[in-house]
Structure formats: structure tokens, C-alpha cells
Amino acid sequence: MSVELQRVAPADIEARRMEIIQQELGGRVLLEENKAVILRAIHTTADFDYADNLVFSPGAVAKGVAAFQAGADIVTDTTMAMSGINKRVLGKFGGQVHNFIADPAVAAAAKERGVTRATVSMERAAEMGKHLVYAIGNAPTALVRLYELWQEGKLPEPALVIGVPVGFVNVVESKELMLTMDAPHIVARGRKGGSNVAAAICNALLYTASQNERE
Fold first, then answer.
1. Active-site choice (43, 98, 131, 185)
2. What pLDDT sits at residue 142?
3. 43 assigned to active site
């Protein structure tokens, strides 16, 4: 079998990817304010469903960008999401990424209470007393606990909640719950998502923040 490969210079690969995505979207028009996030999610997954299933609260992207420019920290529910976030750009604005999943105290509390470590991690994040960006790509229990803490008045207003856990058990339900929360959010409706998508959305916002700073 003969396979003809495209000859693309290494520096041009990402631009070519974006070109292909735009072509395959056809004449579809994406809202300009959300476009960078949608394209980055598709770029990361090669899944065009993100053009339809990403739901943005009013001004979510602008609020996320402004939060990063003001030095907001990120809390993730997995080390994978943490690893995928561009910490150089985040650090340029003074922000850090936090992940409490591997903390022995979190693991011990989760075991004692019979809950997930993601649940306890969100409680730990709330105790920081900061307006954080939450990047949730794996654990629906993290989204549920954020919602509960919000209802209980124990959650400082999030700068942004990125709710994109992937899977089958309570995934859809947790996202629908998050959509009722009166806080800035970007949610991937349905079963699709993942830590890579959570990191990709963070990076899209960070790159936009960095670009806006240069302009």
C-alpha cells in the first residue's frame, strides 16, 4: 500500500492542524469569544463534537482570561491535567497549579469517610480561600462537591469552573448540576471529556491571556 505523507516543517505543524480543523468545520461559524477554546479542544482530541457539546456561561472565556491575567491559581482533579497545563505561561502571570490527590492526608480522610479523594481535594481547595480556576477532567464527584460547597456557602466564588469529566457513572448528571451553578463555567455536556481536555481549555485561556498582553 502506498501512503503519501504531507511534508510539513516542525514549526508549521500546529498551524497546519488548525488549518485542517477550520477546513473540516466547513462553513460553520463559531462564536468568536469561544472560538479559541473550542478549536483547542478539537485540536487536542481530533473530536469535532466539541464544537457542539461545550457550553459556556455568559462571558466565561473573558472571565477566565482576566482571572489568569490577575494571577489566579488552578486546581485540578488529576495529576495528568496538572501535567498538561502550560505552567510557564501561568507562572508569568503569577499563578500556580495545585493538585491534592496524592496528599496522604487527603487519601486518609477520603478512606475514613468513604468518599473519593477528588471530593476531599475540592474541600481542601475551598479552604484556600481564593478565587480559583477549577479544571475538572476526570472525577464527577469533584464537580458534585464543588456544587455542594457552593450551596453550603463554603466555596469562595470560583474564577471559573471547567467541568469536563469523562466516563459513564454520574458524569452527565454532575455536568448538568454544574450548569445550574451561578458561577462562570465551561462544561462539556455528555460523556466526553478528560484530563487532556481540561488542560487544553486552560491552555487556550492562557494563550489568549498572553496574546492580549502583547497587543
1. 43
2. 97
3. yes
